[in-house]
Structure to design on (403 residues):
C-alpha cells in the first residue's frame, strides 16, 4: 500500500491531505504538524482571535476528528529532523517513516528583530502562530503603549486591533510610505488616513535603532533620535519561506523550494505547495503568500501526486480587514505604471486599477465587493478594458464581462 507523507500542518497541508482522500486515494497518509493543535486558519489570529471574538476551536480548518475519520495519521508536536530522498525516508528523531510520495507544505516563518537590538526581550512579538498570539493577548491592554514595526498588511492589521483594544499605538515604517512594497500610493494614502483617523501615530521614513529593557522591553530608539516608552512591540516585517529541510535534502531552491508547473521539486517523488513553494508565473519565479494559493496549489499537487499531470494556474487574490474596512485584491500589481481610481456605488467604496501599458494587472477594492468581483473575473479571463473606460463613471462595469 502506497504511503504519502505531508510535512507541514498549515492551510496547504490540511488541504492536500483532504484532497487526496476526496480524490479516492486509499493508501496511507501521514500529516506531520510541528504545533500542538490541528491545522488552523492564520488570518483571524491578528484580528478576530486577538480581539477575543473567535474561540480557538473555530480557528481549526477541520474538526480534530476529521483526520482520524479519514484515516489520516495526524502527528502533532512532531519535528522532522531529516529527509533522505535516496532512501525515501523521513526522520522524526529516532522514528523513521518510509514514503512513496512526499509533499512539503512547511510554510513560512515571520522575520524577527535581531537579538543584538533587543529582539529577544520579553513582550516583543511576531504574529504568525497561535502560540504567538496566545502569548501576546494578555499584554494587549487599554492605555498601554504599543509599537508596531512595519507598515505592511500584518503591521496595519495589528495596529487596528491594538487600537480597538484601547492601546496607544505608534507605527514605524522605514520606507517612504506604508504598503510601499505591495500597493500603489493611492492605497497607501487611504490606509494612512484610516489609521490616523483612528489615532494611530504613523511615522514613515523612520526605522528602529534598538529596543531597550532589562528583561522586558520598555523603550524603543528610532532612527530620528526619538525615544519611546513602550510596553509591547509587534513586529510585522515580512516572512521567509521555511525551506531548511528541503535545502538539507539537496532540493533545488529559488525564492523558496523550486517547483515545476505541477508542483514537483527537483526530486521526482517530492512535491511542495503553499508559502514555501516557488513557481514560474508570467516569466518570473514567484511565491504567493496567500490562503487561496495555499489551498489551490495544495489541491493541484494532491491530484498530481496521484498521477493527474495538471499544471497549476494560480488565480491570485488577497484580502485585509482593518477596523470596519475590507480590502480585497485581485491579481498581482508587479510592474504597474498607471493606476486608475474608480469610485464605488457607496460613499466609502473605491477601487484602484493597476495597469502596465494597456494590460490590466490587478485591482485593489476597498469596501467595494462588486468591483472586486468584476476586476477578478476580467483578470482571470485575460481581459483588459481601456483605462479610460474604467475611469469613466458612466461605464457599465458588468457589461465589460460580456465584451
Amino acid at each position: 500500500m502506497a504511503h504519502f507523507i505531508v510535512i507541514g500542518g498549515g492551510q496547504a497541508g490540511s488541504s492536500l491531505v483532504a484532497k487526496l482522500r476526496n480524490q479516492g486515494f486509499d493508501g496511507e497518509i501521514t500529516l506531520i504538524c510541528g504545533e500542538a493543535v490541528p491545522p488552523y486558519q492564520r488570518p483571524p489570529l491578528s484580528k478576530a482571535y486577538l480581539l477575543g471574538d473567535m474561540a480557538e476551536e473555530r480557528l481549526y480548518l477541520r474538526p480534530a476528528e476529521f483526520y482520524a475519520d479519514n484515516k489520516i495519521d495526524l502527528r502533532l508536536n512532531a519535528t522532522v529532523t531529516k529527509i533522505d530522498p535516496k532512501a525515501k525516508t523521513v526522520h522524526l528523531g529516532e522514528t523513521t517513516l518510509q514514503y512513496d510520495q512526499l509533499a512539503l507544505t512547511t510554510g513560512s516563518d515571520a522575520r524577527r528583530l535581531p537579538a543584538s537590538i533587543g529582539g529577544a526581550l520579553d513582550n516583543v512579538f511576531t504574529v504568525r502562530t497561535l502560540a504567538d498570539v496566545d502569548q501576546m493577548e494578555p499584554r494587549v491592554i487599554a492605555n498601554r503603549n504599543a509599537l508596531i514595526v512595519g507598515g505592511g498588511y500584518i503591521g496595519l492589521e495589528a495596529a487596528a486591533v491594538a487600537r480597538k483594544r484601547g492601546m496607544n499605538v505608534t507605527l514605524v515604517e522605514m520606507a517612504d510610505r506604508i504598503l510601499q512594497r505591495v500597493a500603489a500610493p493611492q492605497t497607501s494614502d487611504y490606509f494612512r488616513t484610516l489609521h490616523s483617523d483612528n489615532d494611530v501615530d504613523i511615522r514613515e521614513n523612520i526605522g528602529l535603532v534598538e529596543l531597550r529593557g532589562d528583561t522586558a522591553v520598555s523603550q524603543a530608539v528610532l532612527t530620528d533620535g526619538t525615544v519611546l516608552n513602550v510596553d509591547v512591540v509587534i513586529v510585522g516585517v515580512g516572512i521567509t519561506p521555511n525551506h531548511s529541510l528541503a535545502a538539507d535534502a539537496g532540493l533545488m531552491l529559488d525564492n523558496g523550494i523550486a517547483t515545476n508547473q505541477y508542483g514537483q521539486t527537483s526530486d521526482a517523488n517530492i512535491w511542495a505547495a503553499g508559502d514555501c513553494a516557488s513557481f514560474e508565473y508570467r516569466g518570473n519565479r514567484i511565491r504567493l503568500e496567500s490562503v487561496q494559493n495555499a489551498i489551490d496549489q495544495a489541491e493541484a499537487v494532491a491530484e498530481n501526486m496521484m498521477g493527474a499531470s495538471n499544471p497549476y494556474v494560480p488565480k491570485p487574490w488577497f484580502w485585509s480587514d482593518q477596523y470596519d474596512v475590507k480590502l480585497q485584491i485581485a491579481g498581482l500589481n508587479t510592474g504597474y505604471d498607471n493606476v486608475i481610481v474608480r469610485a464605488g456605488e457607496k460613499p466609502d467604496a473605491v477601487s484602484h486599477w493597476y495597469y502596465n501599458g494597456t494590460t490590466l494587472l490587478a485591482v485593489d477594492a476597498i469596501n467595494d465587493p462588486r468591483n472586486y468581483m468584476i476586476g477578478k473575473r476580467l483578470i482571470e479571463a485575460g481581459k483588459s478594458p481601456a483605462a479610460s473606460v474604467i475611469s469613466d463613471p458612466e461605464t457599465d462595469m458588468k457589461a465589460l464581462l460580456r465584451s
Observations:
- The longest helix spans residues 291-305.
- The chain has twelve helices and 26 strands.
- The chain has a mean pLDDT of 96.
- The two ends are 52 Å apart (CA to CA).
